[in-house]
Design brief:
This protein has 271 residues and is α/β, with parallel strands linked by helices. The protein contains 10 helices and 9 strands. Helix content is 41%, strand content 20%. The protein binds adenosine monophosphate (AMP).
Amino acid sequence: MKYIRKILDLNKAIKNEQNLGFVPTMGGIHNGHISLITKSKKRCKKTLVSIFVNPKQFNNKKDYKTYPRNINKDLKILRKNKVDYVFIPTVSEIYTKKKTNTFKLLKSQKILCAKKRKGHFEGVLRVMNRFIGLISPKFIFMGEKDFQQFFLIKKFFENKYKTRIILCKTIRDNKKVALSSRNFLLSKKDLNTAGIITKQLIKLKLKIDKNKRKTKHLILDTKKNLIRTFDIKIEYLEARNKDNLKQNIYKKKYKLFLAYYINKIRLIDNF
Ligand code: AMP
């Protein structure tokens, strides 16, 4: 595994790679990330993983500071999984004095996390544009857990670049909680609570499937119930069309999107 920190070294290392799979991460590597790496290794000749905690996508300084970082542990796991290249740039390598492109969301795109975390996806799009420009991957592998992120990256970049974005299913622990680097910040008790909440959401989806006309009522009911039972703050719980993220789900494929806080740790999921 080649460990790269500088853009100059990156250029040298991958200049002849024609069939490169890219897995962008913020580190805190877990089995969700590994599943993307496995997909990439199957589909592409070489796999490049980036670890970059992107300051531009954090709308909260404390969240940026406390985001789990453990490069040595991450490197060990990536080496064990036979990743070809790992790119861990510094902030100043990515955001040089030369201006990097910025992106604006449409009003209709300012929903769910985009509404609640101002500037978050603008930051994600900015760093992804930079990475795609530097790496020119054939495929990028992204997790369904962050479905809105996948949706926007596909919208903004699949026409602009030759790169194809591949959606990979959410990996969960034995309590059904979606794996996330932020789970490292949760106590065992909080993780248990997250498990119960997840199962309630899976049940809610089944109920909505049976009676879509009652969606609003069913969502409100579950929301009230969760807030009453657990000490959590629900940021949003919404059903949206899977293809365009609009709110009309009647006779359409849809997903339930959830963002909530347990003990000040923000978790998201979708079902
Ligand atoms: P992150 O390091 O949290 O920015 O995530 C990097 C990539 O891993 C993103 O494409 C995420 O959607 C994906 N990912 C994170 N958690 C999971 C999971 N539990 N299952 C599948 N993919 C995931």
